[in-house]
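Need tokens for this chain, all 91 residues.
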Amino acid sequence: MTVLSWALPLALALLALAMLLSLLRLLRGPSAQDRVLALDTMYLNGMLLMLVLGMYYATVHYFEAALLVALFGFVGSTAMAKFLLRGEVIE
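Here are the structure tokens for all 91 residues:
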């Protein structure tokens, strides 16, 4: 029995739990900054979930999806931060 046979399902479960807790913070966050950070944490956990699924199923398609999630998450969190600072996204 290899280490990956039990580590990957455990990592999937813990990442799913982290996403659930981030969703709770997103819904109950006392301020807009807390909600943006929760959304940022959710996309990072989603990207890591995709990477672990790629290792679990031994396919490269999940790695490409994780790259897209990271790209869109970065752009989204940058736009949200700019909106919170200035009140507008496009100048």
